[in-house]
Give the backbone structure.
Amino acid sequence: MVLNTLGRYFAKKIFGMVLVVFGLCLILVFLIDFVEMMREAGKTEVPPGFVVMLTLLRLPAFAELTLPFAVLIGTISAYLLLSRSSELTIARAAGISVWQFIQPAILVGLLFGVFAVTAYNPLATVAKQSADRLFADNFAAKRTTEANSTATWIRQDGPDGGSIIYARASADRGTKLAGITLLQFEPNKKFLERIEADKAVLRKGYWELENAHVFSSGALPQFYRKYNVSTYLDADQVKESVDTADGVSFWELPGFIEFADKAGLSTVAYKLQYQQLLARPFLMICMVLLAATCSLKPFRFGKIQTMVIAGLSAGFAFFVLVELSRKLGMSSYITAGVAAWAPIAIASLLALTVLLHQEDG
């Protein structure tokens, strides 16, 4: 069925509809993020063209979350259009069963999943890193006390004593910081000075601060174009402490997990992210099966709206289950493999059960 003319026709229809839905998701995500970036730009003198470029670089990473929804809604829409034009009815009359004409949709979902993991995710990660770098250089470098959900805290020690660094934004995996507030302590733990700086770059053995204002007790504030703060941290240690799991691409995750394990650091989030990426092609197949349970009924039977709503509700319930499983995995109540694969297995088996009941009674 997948390779014959009718199978290719169905696959083309489903593929096109998934692309349309994903395109609409891209537009919606872009508009939402663009409004947020314009709000940030209102505090600085950044041209609108730069804001558009920054939003476009951030777009792939944010839109990646909508890929399963695009497959679900796109497959439902494609099957409804085929049913409305009686093409599914004719296919049934020709002796083609449900199990045959969902095969092209399964193939399309599998291809989308493989592409999302092997190509889209690495590209989205690189684009997001570039966006973080531009954001740090043009927005977060402005000193501000405003709280930010992406802020970074680093506790470090150095030859001159320990320090606590707060950065409003980070780039290059934490080796470049912006919007800096640094509290410096002497080796005997006594507070020494507070430093406000636009940017900080990790060098070998020290942080190089740019446009630093140094506030020491009993002395007037001092300004330095360049100001160095010693550290024992290296680039790998900073990356591990600052990086989030979704900031590491699929191809980098195995090496990152191996390094963190050897260093004795927690790798739960990274292992879970890796397992979720491995399971993504099967997640897309699960979306196809969920879509098939609510969109293959002929229009003459009525209650199409009710079935579509039921299918979308099932999709929403599935993602609630995925999030619950992820939380359990992050808390180490279950292993990363179980957390990533169990919701897909459960939802797929339930969808197959419903299809069996609808098709074979």
Remarks:
- The mean pLDDT is 83.
- The chain is about 60% helix and 15% strand.
- Residues 16 and 74 are 8 Å apart (CA to CA).
